[in-house]
Amino acid sequence: MPVRRMRLLDLPCVMRIERACFRSEGYGIGVFLAHLARDYRGAFVAENEHGEVVGYVLVRRSPGWRRPRRGGITSIGVAPIHRRRGFGRALLESALEYLRSHRVETADLEVRTTNAAALSLYRALGFRFSERLPQYYGEKGDGMRMVLDLRAAVSSAGKGASRA
Ligand SMILES: CC(C)(COP(=O)(O)OP(=O)(O)OC[C@H]1O[C@@H](n2cnc3c(N)ncnc32)[C@H](O)[C@@H]1OP(=O)(O)O)[C@@H](O)C(=O)NCCC(=O)NCCS
């Protein structure tokens, strides 16, 4: 599943995906530009078999000198007609690999409590409930924070592999 770093030239496509996923609640292009300016390595896109950008993920991490090293998922989205084909999982796996490569110990994210697809994806990759966030999305709904211990995730993946 091809996942690569986001480039400035991807932004028109990424913005179309953002609007399709989040409508008026989506980030504006300024958020993407600021993210790329801060850490252009922490943004990935997924391409389909025709080389079209069909999804993206933005990854955040604390400065390298800060301990413990923390990071998380700022946003992830896959174009509606390309969902359920593994792009979301591939993007999230790339994001977590990126955080591990920077020795980030804990990853977190916020998600709407009613977002069944995202919750299921996050749980599938090991994220667990951490905290309820009442009205995190204003009047439009509650959120929750989920966390993943990246060190534990690595060691349990290792155990699984050794059983195979
Ligand atoms: C969440 C999202 C990124 C998932 O992308 P995707 O490419 O469809 O996900 P994948 O095909 O990689 O699915 C991976 C796993 O996630 C879970 N999942 C994904 N969509 C699901 C759905 N609609 N219902 C239940 N589980 C779902 C499943 O466990 C799935 O594994 P499976 O296909 O083997 O059952 C996508 O639905 C999306 O862009 N939603 C709108 C934006 C959004 O809500 N972003 C998250 C904000 S916190």
Task: Spell out the key features of this protein.
globular, 28% strand, binds coenzyme A, alpha+beta, 164 residues
Question: Mind sketching the topology for me?
Answer:
Elements: E1 3-5, H1 11-22, H2 29-38, E2 43-47, E3 53-61, E4 70-78, H3 87-101, E5 106-112, H4 116-124, E6 128-133, E7 143-149, H5 150-163
Parallel strand pairs: 4-5
Antiparallel strand pairs: 1-2, 2-3, 3-4, 5-7, 6-7
This protein binds coenzyme A.
Coenzyme A binds next to strand 4, helix 3 and helix 4.
What is shown here, in short?
With 164 residues, the chain is an alpha+beta fold.
Walk me through what this model shows:
By secondary structure, the chain is α+β, with helices and mostly antiparallel strands. The protein has a single domain (3-163), classed as Gcn5-related N-acetyltransferase (GNAT) (Aminopeptidase). The protein has helices at residues 11-22, 29-38, 87-101, 116-124, 150-163, and strands at 3-5, 43-47, 53-61, 70-78, 106-112, 128-133, 143-149. The protein has a seven-stranded mixed beta sheet with strand order 1-2-3-4-5-7-6, sandwiched between helices. The chain is globular and about 40 Å long. Bound molecules: coenzyme A. The site of coenzyme A has 19 residues, from strand 4, helix 3 and helix 4. Coenzyme A binds at residues 21, 76-78, 83-89, 111, 115-118, 120-121, 124.
